[in-house]
């Protein structure tokens, strides 16, 4: 039986790939045999991440990209295809957290920053990725949403709105391209042990541990656990999964 998680000969693209869930997913794609493009606005960090993968014998390329800039995104996909010839899987993961403030006190520039990266950035990435995948007649995309797409959360309205938008965008794109041999899905991570999660509590480890202890499984998730979900969603093993937002949250939203 063929291993559905064997990505030998495939090309994967991951945004926000210098750390956290993006880095873990890029590493997982590489270990599974894919050539991997790691994209991030933090050029030094993403170059170091790609260099480490190459040093371990994997095929990896780092590209600086600001996903809120359409020209950057177009260049990212163009260079991916120019280098590796195709694009089989993409994890649109780049995102930022809102500055905590009630709606009445939240500045317009924060709204524009969060929506520009978390939602418009996903839209831009998909637009260019899907054009290439439609030429091929194949491909799979996973967008990173959040359990915040399933509920409200006082103080981070722009973040919550952006993640609700990602799920709606995912479902719509999935219906537009499914007949082209392309699948689009999303993941809704819960509390995952990343810098963004710690930034929410301003680095207060006691507060962070308190939140982690409220998760039914008793801990924060690991970035590698999101990577596993992404690789499955991009694989033939998920061939009948279309427009789904897979919640990976240790039981947070069912408690």
From TrEMBL:
InterPro entries: NAD(P)-bd_dom_sf, SDR_fam
EC number from the UniProt entry: 1.1.1.47
Alphabetical UniProt keywords: Oxidoreductase
GO MF annotations in UniProt: glucose 1-dehydrogenase [NAD(P)+] activity
Leading EC class: oxidoreductase
Family annotation (Gene3D superfamilies): NAD(P)-binding Rossmann-like Domain
Family: Belongs to the short-chain dehydrogenases/reductases (SDR) family.
PANTHER family: DEHYDROGENASES, SHORT CHAIN, ESTRADIOL 17-BETA-DEHYDROGENASE 8-RELATED
Protein's recorded name: Glucose 1-dehydrogenase
Protein species of origin: Bradyrhizobium denitrificans
